[in-house]
Structures are given as structure tokens and as C-alpha cells.
Amino acid sequence: MDGTILRRLVTRGPGVLLLGLALAVALILVGWLDYSSTRRELLGLLRSEAASLRDTVAAAARSNDAAARSAEAQLTTRLLDSARLLAELDRERPLAEPRLQEFLKKNELVRVLVLAPDGSREIAVPAFGGGPGSGQPGPGSARGAGRPPWAGAGGGPGGPGSTVADRLLSGDVSETTTGVHEGRGGSARLAAGVRRANGGAIVLTVDASAVAELHRQSSLEKLFDDIVASVEHVAYVEFTHGDVTRAHGEPPTPDASLEPEKVPGSDPTEQWFRSTDGTIMEVRGPIEIGPDETATLKLGLRLDSLKRAERRTLGRLAVSLTGAVVLGALGFGLVWLRRAYGSLTEEHARAQEALRRRDRLAAMGELASSVAHEIRNPLNAIAMSAQRLERECFTGERARDPSFAESAELVDVIKRESHRINETVQHFLDVARPPRLAPRATDLAAFLSSVADAARPMAGARGLTLDIDVASTGEVVLDATQMRQALDNLLRNAIDATPPGGRVWLASRGTAREHVLEVGDTGRGIEPEVLPRIFDLYFTTKSDGTGIGLAVTQQIVTAHGGTLDVESTPGAGTVMRIYLPRTVVEATDARSPHPGR
Question: Measuring CA to CA, which residue among 523, 414, 437 is closest to residue 486?
């Protein structure tokens, strides 16, 4: 690959690099948007699942609350009906303890209390054999600080029965109930009573532990356990109702290793925790468990699945980017190879054209050399004969004799025309014989400046501007005399082809392998059909041209081991470029196809 290809690749390289960078940035941006979108979708799914779990828990809590209220109402009705029945039996015949004990066992009561009108106890039948009514704490005690929501309903020093009896004995009501309340030993109780016909009271107490458990929402514990056990990414569930808090799983504890993290786009009800075990998103908020009754639910969601999905997405993104980069590299490689191949093809075509020009010049030179030698021999005889005639016949008195004046003039014409033909023959020989170089190291900037200075008066006389740009040059090895002739030929052609007011320039630049000398103009340009013939010997488009200048210039450049290239646009101008190697070692060995001449 020669200097021209390198030059073009260097010129186009930044554009290709910028295009590649732009495509890489676009791919990264698209990948990042896809990753961000996937992450938002996964977080949205987690939030939706958390909302679904909250709705499930709220529905279960409301169902439990409704069941508790229904069970309490049924138990109250049954207990009140039992008290009414005992009041009717007491109206017919005073109640006896054995009968009340049988009634207590049959109806699974805890206590039956019969009071006289003055409030004294006539009969008090307690439960037998422990269990309900034994005074021991019943099942389902709250697992948390404080008392259960039903605790203290009708309590007092005398217990709930005293409260019911006080209301009945006062005459304010004929029958009353306490609702579920905390009895002795912390067990749940429900009391109901009616006024006796003689003014006393009958008070019944029943165990309400089952109803209390529903009030406690204890049945939700199994649901919470199932959620934590079956849903992999649920780390914990925390339910707070009143003063009671139930936690299932392992909620985060205040610890230096767990730091809250605010995530963009997260809801204010969310709290993110980062720990050595991973990241947890806690979703909290109130839920309705009954009419005008709320509780607080916290759900801790592990983000391990999200992290795994993110890693998979990043992995796919990396694979996609790698594939895109590989495909892009292959594409750019193909483009580069295509451009390189195109440049090589162009350079090959240019080299072939230069070779054809050189072959034509060589053939013309061969012919010119043969013709010149064939002409020079008789021409020498004619010239010598003319000189002898002039010396022998037209000297002395004959030179002053008017009768010999016309003959002397004819002899002079023979001499002048012989000299002119000899000069033409010399041109033939100059074309046929390549120049012998005397190369030496030359400061290219100073050399080109001197060439431009010599041509500047000619450009100024035609009203043209001659610019020079030799900043990026260095030292070059060349034959200054012959290269000056070549550049002078190019500058003369550029000046002749440019109308007044136009511009002609001489510039140079260097690459790692070569120097490029450029002569350009803003003239009329060269027609495409004429362009292939401009280096042919004796071809010219100028009325006073000889057609030798570009052929000689081509020979000089070729002798230096360089090439001469032309780029022209009709009506816009022409640029001639000379590509010279940094050394002319190989050029000095170049010889004509006619050695020895």
C-alpha cells in the first residue's frame, strides 16, 4: 500500500472512528434503556404482588372480624336465651343447685350466679374439673405487648358478673350482656343476665376463647406462615393491630449493616434495606379489617430474583453489545477493505496509466532518437556546406558585391534553418534520453519558496494571486535543477489556464513514506476527453504550445522514483500532484530503455 492509500485512510479514519463511537454510544444507550425498562417492570411486578398480598391479608382480616362479630352475637344470643330460660324456671319453682349444675354442664357454661333482691348470693355454681372456667389462662393469649382488644369489657373488682348484676338489681334494665371481656386468669369470658320475677338476678358466664381468637386475628398467623413459606421472595410479614404485633419471618432489626436506601421512583410507603444478605424492599401501609377499624401491615420482599433478572439482563446486554461490536467491527473492516481495495484499484489504474504514458514516451523517444540521428547526419553536411560556401564564396570583395547579396542571404537562411532543425533534433534526443540526476539533500520549504518567487512576476502580470503553503515540509533528496524545471512547467501551465482574478497555489505536505508537491489553479480545467492525452509528446491545447513540457515533467518525476497525478474539474480548476519518495536511491538507478544514448 503506497502513500496515497495511507493518506486517504488517514483522512477518512477520524470519520470512521467517530461513526463507530456514535454507534457504540447508541448501542449502550439502547441497552441501558432496555435494562432500566426491565428493572422498572420487575419492580412494578413486585409492587403489584405486594399490593395483592396486602389485599389478601385485608380480606382475610375482614373475614375474621366478621366471623368474630357473628360468633360473638350468636354466643350472646344463646347465653341470653339460657338466662331467660332459667328465669322462667325460677318463676315456676325456685332453682336448686343440682339442677343448675346439670344445666351448666349441658350448656357448657363457666358459672351460674343466682342473686337475691338485696344482692346476696343465693346460689353460685362454678365449673368443675378445670378447663373452661377453671380460672387458668385460656388458649390464644396475645403474642405481643399490652392487652388484647377485647380486654376490660365489664371488668371491675367484682368481675363482669358484678357489673351485670348491678345493672339488673338497679332496675334500669331487665336483661343485659357484657360482650367478650378478659376474665380471671386472662381467659376470655362473656356474661349475660336477666332480672328475676321477685327482684333478684340470674347471671350466666360462658367461655369466649374461640371468639377472642377471632378478635385477635390469630387465624391470620397460618396465612402469614404460608405466605412466608411458599412465596420465595417474601422475607417477612409484620401485622400490627392495636397494641398487638405479630411478626412472621425475619424482619430487619436496627443494625449498622442494614442501612435504609432511597431508590428513585420508589413509593413513600417503601423502605429499602441493604445488607450482606441482599437487598430487601419493605412495603408498609394500613389495611381495613373492619368497620372503622384498621391495622398496619409490613411486607418485606427479597430482591434476589430482581438482582438475578438484572444480572441476566446485563448478561444479555453484554452479549448483544459484544455481538454488535463484533458485527460493527466486521462491517467497518469490510468498509475499510472495500475502500482499501478501491484505493488499490485506483492506484493500480493510475500506475497502469503512468506505465502506458511512459511506454508511449519511450516509443516516441525511440522513434525520435532514430529520426534525430538520421536527420542529424545530413543536417550536419548541409550546415557544414553552408559554412564552407559562406567562407569561400561570400567573403572579401564578393561580400560587398550587390550581385552576390541574394546568394549570401540564401546561405544565411540555410544556416539559420539548419540551426533550428538541430534544436528540434536536440529536443527529440532530450525526450528519448532520461535525465541524469544529481540528487542531494534539499530544504524543501526553501526550494519551493524560490520556485514560487520566480513564478510570482508572471502571475502578477496576468492579475493572478500565487499562494504558497510549505509549512509541513522537511528535507528531501532531489535534483534541484531538474525538479525546478518540472515545477516551472506546471506553474506556467496553471498560470496560462487561469483567467485574471483567479488563484494559483504551490503547496506541499509530508507523510511517513513520501512528500506530496501540489500545483493547483482555479482556471478552466481540463475536459475529460482530453485528460488522458495531456502527457503525450507534442500534444497541446495551447495555440503556441510545443506539447513537450508535461512529457518532460513526467520524465523528471519518474526519474526521481515518483508519480505525477492530475485531478481536474472543468470550469473549476486543475490540481497536479507530484508524489516523491523520501529517498531517491531507487530513482537514481532508473535508466532509459535506450541505455548509452
Answer: 437
Ordered by start, the domain boundaries in the chain are 220-302, 436-597
Helix (H) or strand (E) holding 293: strand 293-302
Tell me the per-residue pLDDT of 152-176, one tens digit each, with 9 for 90 and over. 333 334 455 567 888 888 888 889 9
The Cα angle at residue 35 between residues 32 and 39, in degrees rounded to 5: 140
pLDDT of residue 502: 92
Q: Are 4 and 579 in contact (CB under 8 A)?
A: yes
Give 145's DSSP letter: S
Q: In what order do the strands lie in the sheet with 175-182?
A: 121-126, 109-115, 201-207, 188-195, 175-182
What is the Cβ-side half-sphere exposure of residue 570, based on CA atoms within 13 angstroms? Answer: 6
CA distance 303 to 236: 13
β-pairing, 293-302 with 278-290?
Answer: antiparallel
Question: Where would I find the beta strands (DSSP E) of 418-478?
Answer: 440-443, 465-469, 475-478
Mean pLDDT of 325-342: 76
Out of 54-58, 395-399, 557-561, pick the least confident: 395-399
State whether residue 119 is helix, strand or coil: coil
CA–CA distance from 149 to each of 65, 182, 210, 293 (Å)? 12, 10, 14, 11
Fold of 436-597: Heat Shock Protein 90 (3.30.565)
Asked whether 491 and 497 are in contact (CB, 8 A), the reply is no
> pLDDT category, 216, cuts 50, 70, 90?
low
DSSP state of 272: E
C-alpha cell at 409: 542571404
The structure's pTM equals 0.41
Sign of torsion, CA 122 128 132 135? positive
Q: What is the DSSP string of 220-273?
A: HHHHHHHHHHH-TTEEEEEEEETTEEEEEE----S-TT-EEE--TT--TTEEEE
Q: How many residues does the chain have?
A: 597
pLDDT tops 70 at residue 247: yes
Cα–Cα distance between 579 and 492 in angstroms, integer?
Answer: 19
Amino acid letter for position 574? T
DSSP reduced 3-state for 149: coil
Q: Are 466 and 502 within 8 A, CB to CB?
A: no
Q: Among 197, 196, 198, 215, which Cα is nearest to 73's?
A: 215
The more confident residue out of 88 and 336 is 88
**Per-residue pLDDT tens for 403-442?**
667 777 777 888 888 888 887 777 666 666 666 788 888 8
Residue 168, CA distances (Å) to 64, 88, 203, 243, 369 in order: 33, 16, 9, 33, 153
Candidates 340, 238, 358; CA nearest to 298 is 238
How many angstroms separate the first and last alpha carbons of the chain? 35
pLDDT score of 127 more than 50: no
Can you list the alpha helix ranges (DSSP code H) found in 433-548?
A: 444-461, 480-497
